[in-house]
Amino acid sequence: MNADESLAQVEADVRRAEARAAQMPAFEAAVAAVRGVGRSRGRDIVVEVDSVGRVTDLRLSEHALARGPQRLSHEIVTAIRDAEAAAQAATLRVVGELLGGDDPIVAQLAAEQQNHR
To answer: Which parts of the chain sit beneath pLDDT 50?
Structure first.
């Protein structure tokens, strides 16, 4: 690679970095807005999580509470896992739409989603 080609490569890298930096506020807002929801089979337990899996809402019906602590706790944990999977899929989708499917961040998120299955 000669000096002109090297300079052109550096300039292209700088433009890509500037474009990525310009996308970061939208990226952060999109990821912050992601929510995933999981429900029990009877739909009387509903869990919502954010993009990193933190529970943001938990709703239990009287019917769900009547099942007893062991069954209830099992169904809550299952609903949380379903909500986490939904949030991961939503995060991957919004980041892919924003950054493009070939972006390394999208590839990393997809690999993490595969590892959690």
So the answer is: none
